[in-house]
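Record format v2
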Amino acid sequence: MAKVICECGYSNPEGTDLCEACGKPLNEKAKQQTLVDMRYEGVARRSQTYNKSIVDKVWNFFSSVKVGIWIIILTLLASSLGTIFPQEMYIPNNVSAAEHYQEEYGVLGQIYYTLGLHNMYSSWWYMALIASLGISLIIASLDRVVPLYRVLKHQKVSRNEGFLRRQRMFGEMTVPAGENQLEAAKHILKKRKFKIREEGDNLVAEKGRFSRWGPYVNHVGLIIFLTGAMLRFFPGMYVDEVVWVREGETEVVPGTDGEYFVENEQFFLEMYDENDETFATALERAGGNIVETFQTDAIVYEREEGGTIGEEPDLQELKRDEIRVNEPLTFDGFSLYQVDYKLNELNVMSLEMVNRETGESVGELQIDLFNPESEYDLGDGYRVVIDSYFPNFEFNEEGEPSTISSIPDNPAFIFQMFSPEHEEEGEYSFVGIQRNEDVFGENDYEMSFQNVETKNVTGLTVRKDNTLPFIAAGGIIFMIGLIQGSYWSHRRVWLKKENGKLLYAGHANKHWQTLKRDFEALYEEAGISPPVDQVAEKEQAEEKKKQQEGGS
Amino acid sequence: MEQLSGNLLLTAFFLYLLATILFAVSVTGRKWRDKSGDMTGNKWGTLGFLAALGGFLFAAGYFVTRWMASGHAPVSNMFEYTTFLGIAIGFAFLILYSIYKSNVLGMFAMPIIMLIIAYASIFPTEVEPLIPALQSYWLQIHVTTTALGQGILAIGFVAGLIYLIRTVDFSKGGKKVFWLEFIMFSMLTVAAFVIIRYAFNIFGYQTVFQYTDENGAQAEMIYELPPILGPNNGQLIQQGSWEPLFLLPEWIRSDDANTLVWTFAAAIVLYAVIRLLLRKPLSQFLQPLIRGVSPDKVDELSYRAIAIGFPVFTLGGLIFAMIWAQIAWTRFWGWDPKEVWALITFLFYAAYLHLRLTRGWHGERSAWLCVIGFAIIMFNLVFVNLVIAGLHSYA
């Protein structure tokens, strides 16, 4: 690799604009500028130096901040597209997505659905955008941080005059005999928490260099974050299941390989007290119905070691807790969240078999609507057989009785009633909510509805997310880097005494007003006249010129 | 307590009005301008700062007393959040003023704070009980941090606006003048909306329509403003109002559309009157008043505000948001519209910082970006809450 040797003796890598040690402009471009480009201290960056192989080209593409900004803007625009209509996960799940978007949003909805924008954030092209953002973060950071670290480490105290004169803040003055501004400046800057280094008649005061690493630290955080987000696609890292548990029942927790079980002792919801004076107006406006609490009293069990598979497992109580919105129950990396409920689900129905003529009951049966028995013996030659059971009854398209689901929201039965009078064939009766019909001709007996027991059901989300440590670490590192880079600035003041003259210059990576205040202090306390802000001066000159043109 | 809280907020509002006047005097009063044109060291600015400080203290009093009255941090609905955003801008102003001592910043920030607080008061102001999803201490942590971040970013917008008014060349006209005037008009529109709602409210105006809704059912709709646009098959069932000029189809919220028509009509009238009085665009009228302001300094001020506000917004609007979402909604990220727009805000300011740091977008271009950034924040506050329904629609 070719090296560029500066007159100060330092050997710079090929492509360097400003000598890493003394800051002397090394090439024609840098020499011709009135102000040096201090963005990366004039270091040689790989992306600016090599452009031959395919690796160089890919590297150069992704190392460009311009490309990075385009990726950010494209991600931004793409993200906004997905909010025009709700994403598929937020639409009601009892209709097909295609129908839903068309019915709710017309032609635009159809287009939205056809373009796949209803599931945009998991589309391949959105993922590709995020991935290229990640690649850009890595390459652009590496391209800059390595040489920047080197140059800030190797910078010399004594700087080339050309470097100083080309700083935004530059000043010079003749030093009156017998005065030692250098010494005075050193004390003032030290008091202002600058780190001072000296070399003969040269001095550099530096402050807040660590803030230069802020952007790279926060990029590392982002990369960890994105890696964490990617890990979700590996099996076992992420569990997202729903379990419905009826009061008094125990269900296996899905996603745990039958290891854990959850019991719902009770579920309830509480409303805000309508007579509460504080919220009187608001409750009136809402019609008095604002839910205060959704709660499941839950017990989590762990399967005992050594139980035989297939048998009823032995369960060991692990944790007993109240699950509310905002208060999940957590065990062994799993969390159970209160997300849904169903009140008063039908559970046990009791019916009596009645002799129509006498009105006498010949026996009662209790049907577990989730697990009905096929036959109920009432004694004395009376028995009831369930011929058909429709938990959620409807007449289907052919006009046949059928069921929509296995949840007993609208249970209906065809009973076969056996009695001493009808020993052989029995009598058929169709019984449902608000229905009681004889199937074949007039019956002697009927099934009379007595009573129904209901239970509340809780809907819990089961979640395990092993990517969280990555997400959290990424987030924390990102925040640290962001604060490091935003709330501090890197400021340097150079002073150089040469041939009875004092040259001084200053550089801040941002917040120049603060640097100007440092120079004000040097003026007031050490008599070093304020340097010229060469950028502001140029701007003022331009504005004056513009005004004159406008006036004439 | 709720009454006291309301009075404290009202006092704060008038203190911000006082601060506006004091800062305006400090900037425009020619007598105190020094040689180089910088407005330093005159006492009006200090008085303005004290009024702004007073405004903030009274607003903080509102916040504390309302919290005591309702038992939860008052950031749970549109009125409370928007008011808090106004207070946050006031606080952000105090921080930036203490660094840059810029009176012109006060002259522009104060009226914007007033506008936002006034806009907030149009929403129902009574204290509401918290739904289960909001019952968490993360409510105050996440929401206040986000609002503070947005407040500081808003100061970046104010400084950007000052930069544009100060530097745009009006003699040439063109796009820049148009868009600058558009910003002015937008702010007048908010003012017009507030004025018109209050005007009809004072006279207790209300009328009720019976109409056919989108499901074909009969329903009633209350109008707070006289109907220019009526609902689908609307029949007035209350006397004392004129008949609507047009009836709208069922898929448009006619009361909102009606309010929109009123607002724009009022805004156009308001703008026309001001324009006739000034005989030039508003921003052009303002330009000579702030001639003494250094563009370079407001540019840096605006950048500083963004640099301070961006991490705060990220912390509140993304990181705290994700922590709470993991607790309340079972996942730290779910592509809810408000989440997405917080991400968009984040990406936008990230792009701003990169453009500024490495592509040298200073001054004018940077100022326009600050304006767009604030527009995104306002979009997320108003549009995403009220129009795009999602998990965050608490208004």
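Residues 344-456 of chain A form one domain.
Chain A touches chain B through 62 residues (CB under 8 Å).
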